[in-house]
Request: fold
Amino acid sequence: MRDRQSLNHRQLAPKLKLFYSAGCPFCIKVFLAMLWLRLQGKLSAVTLANVVRPTVRQQLIDGGGKKQVPCLAITDSQSEKVIWLYESTEIIDWFKRYATRR
Ligand SMILES: N[C@@H](CCC(=O)N[C@@H](CS)C(=O)NCC(=O)O)C(=O)O
Reply:
């Protein structure tokens, strides 16, 4: 029962993709917050996407509308609707809320 519940939970969890660039201080701020939440066992899979790769950069611009990083793409696992969250502080706040919901 517990396994089934955690499987359902994982299936319903949004897909998270963080667009970043190396050396970006705002991205480092987000990484540190993610590390802190992970150490507490409150944050699992987040895909990292480095915008140094042209295809990744284009995906960010096409999807989110601008090339600014960090940007967290939150995909609803049922509707596939994507929310593009810019601003490091908002991303961290979202992660904190998400982590305490789980
Ligand atoms: N206020 C934003 C600042 C983000 C920012 O300035 N990112 C830089 C990289 S360090 C960037 O993407 N600059 C290019 C752009 O804005 O198009 C945050 O806190 O996330």
